From TrEMBL, chains A, B:
Protein name: Phosphate acyltransferase
Keywords: Acyltransferase, Cytoplasm, Lipid biosynthesis, Lipid metabolism, Phospholipid biosynthesis, Phospholipid metabolism, Transferase
HAMAP family: PlsX
GO molecular-function terms, A-Z: phosphate:acyl-[acyl carrier protein] acyltransferase activity
Subunit relationships: Homodimer. Probably interacts with PlsY.
Gene Ontology cellular-component terms listed: cytoplasm
Family according to the record: Belongs to the PlsX family.
Function: Catalyzes the reversible formation of acyl-phosphate (acyl-PO(4)) from acyl-[acyl-carrier-protein] (acyl-ACP). This enzyme utilizes acyl-ACP as fatty acyl donor, but not acyl-CoA.
Keyword Metal-binding attached: no
Origin superkingdom: Bacteria
């Protein structure tokens, strides 16, 4: 199993990408193919005391800045570590790809260079978000790749999310929910009404509309919505959790008595923090692309990169894409049945 | 000052509406006009030992169910406590109106019976949400009245929210933020791009795009968005907060030591809970309607109704609607200037 890693993507590249790659080689026995400036990679590895055994390097002279136009990935940044990684992926030089670089450039690059799975309308970001009920986590798709969506896209997000959560997270018959303003079938706008109809007929365990207040309690295993709404869910979950954590820390720091209290619940709080740590689940899959592609968080550290590499390897090994293709074929078959 | 209260709206009506009305009369010296079945109101008041001095009753024989078609408010439920209340409002029999009944029926009823402020495209729900930074609260508009919005509507939400937060909450020059997937001006879809352009020129303190992760930290005083997105923000904030509270309670209940720790931080937690209690800020204003209209939470108790009545009275007394009309006039004038 060979995972391609964009060595220059993310706020902490290339130190943390190189360290994460080395950790993944050692822990999982995978080969990692780093893309980026070869000289810098070798120098940083030496400086950090990281051995490069099990790691290959493919030289890429530039790095695409986060603020660059997404489409520049096939133009002035065609030789960037991100673009070169995607080219290696499509050429079969690696089984899966990981980057913590620009999300927009990744969507454009993966779509144009690697291409989508046949029949898939749009690729979408699908992070796995920790929650306190259900299976302890849920996939949110799309979390921001597509601001505007059509009903068929949401239905396909359901099929892709179902295959992923089943294969990678081991959840049998994952519950697919449609994010909406109410649970009744008649709720929402044209997008939700159309998606509801399609999801009912799709080969997934569709549980109907899900109100956002139920998401943190694990009401479904895959929550589908347009990318604008998904981005709100992703970022607001992060924000409210952070605001709560900040306030509670403040309460514990008030005086000697409360500081003692903090010691008593330290373990419980630590476990809760670990349970809510998104980096435990790796990065966000870019589902819909013809080869396994993972977007790691921009602020990823070595551990997060290691986890994302493991996730990418599972993505390839467990043939999630084959499973998605099966789901699409089922829909095609049932549509043909209806015509007959 | 006379506030009309739908005595039969909400899960706890009419017991809690009647109690809340009596509390408001006593505490704020307002007159409350209750709409609903007169016989039942009198009987319940007697049973509960609530005096009806300062309270008037206008008989309305039916109650519109939450599940009824919204448009039924002008048809089979034209004699409901909600519809009768709105008619009294438009006839000037009261200065403001409060209901905890059906949101959909309220939007339709208020729009058709009371009508919108001249020039306002759509009315929207505008709850005030507690947060941990900034001014400790922000207005979210629209939180669910309009699934689909146009840029001009979002700009008007900004004007209305600005007037409200200034007059009712005493925030001078409120910061208006546009909820978006990134802070850069180029972010979002057609709706956000269009709204950004209009808000820049509007007579409000527009601070640009706001990412949802910054909302709980009080990044702006009024957050504007379409009703679908706003409903997600409202319900997800509630859900994540509840999930956190549940987990932390669990951590404190683990053993004797953690239960002792709970005692030490009890006051701090209690204050935080009060700070985060949405009922402290009353209900959601239905901004855009030509007369002050408040939607109280469906699960309101007497205290929440009392607060909503106080809020409705301030809404009328401080002439928020006059302030909104001024804002609209400014835009009209500056548009005429541009033409000249």
């Amino acid at each position: 199993m060979k995972v391609i890693l964009d060595a220059f993507g993310g706020d902490n590249a290339p130190v943390e990408t190189i360290k994460g790659a080395a950790m993944a080689v050692q822990e999982y026995g995978v080969t990692v193919l780093l893309t980026g400036d070869e000289e810098i990679i070798k120098r940083v590895a030496k400086e950090q005391g990281v051995t490069l055994s099990g790691i290959e390097i493919v030289h890429a002279p530039t790095v695409i800045p986060v603020c660059a136009e997404s489409t520049s990935i096939t133009k002035e940044y065609a030789d960037s570590s991100l673009a070169v990684g995607l080219k290696l992926l499509v050429e079969g030089k690696g089984d899966a790809f990981v980057t913590a670089g620009s999300s927009g450039a990744l969507v454009v690059g993966a779509t144009l260079i690697v291409k989508r799975i046949k029949g898939i309308k749009r690729a979408g970001f699908a992070p796995v978000i920790p929650c306190v009920g259900g299976n302890g986590k849920y996939m949110l798709m799309d979390s921001g790749a597509n601001i505007d969506c059509r009903p068929e896209m949401l239905m396909q997000f359901g099929i892709m999310g179902s295959a992923y959560m089943n294969k990678i997270m081991g959840i049998s018959n994952p519950k697919i929910g449609l994010i909406n303003v109410g649970v009744e079938e008649s709720k929402g706008g044209e997008l939700q009404l159309g998606a509801y109809e399609l999801l009912k007929k799709a080969p997934v365990n569709f549980t109907g509309n899900v109100e956002p207040r139920e998401l943190p309690f694990g009401a479904c295993d895959v929550a589908v919505c347009d990318g604008f709404s998904g981005n709100i869910v992703l970022k607001l979950t992060e924000g409210v959790a952070k605001a709560f954590t900040t306030q509670i820390k403040g309460i514990f720091m008030q005086n000697f008595k409360t500081k003692l209290a903090a010691l008593a619940v330290k373990n419980g709080m630590k476990n809760f923090k670990k349970q809510m740590d998104y980096t435990e689940h790796g990065g966000a899959a870019l589902l819909g692309i013809a080869k396994p592609t993972i977007k790691a968080h921009g602020s990823s550290n070595a551990k997060a990169f290691k986890n994302a590499i493991r996730q990418a390897a599972s993505f390839a090994q467990l043939d999630v894409i084959g499973e998605i293709e099966k789901g699409l074929q089922e829909i095609k078959n049932s549509a043909q049945e209806t015509v007959k």
